[in-house]
Prior knowledge:
Layout (H helix, E strand, L loop, with lengths): L9 E6 L2 H12 L2 E6 L2 E5 L5 E6 L4
Parallel strand pairs: 1-4
Antiparallel strand pairs: 2-3, 3-4
Amino acid sequence: MAVQVYGVNHVVIEVDDAQKAVEFYSDVFNLKMLRGGEGAAWCQLGEHQFLAIFWHNGP
Length: 59
């Protein structure tokens, strides 16, 4: 049975500094912010796709 992939719904990254990551993706890729919170943010990638950015406080 073959599997057909149509796209990616979302991507999640964990970073040391969520605010700096938001600034980077907004400036370099011109992504639109959807919403944010303490240590988390969501940026629109396409019509139905998004990038989630989360602060990671562990090793």
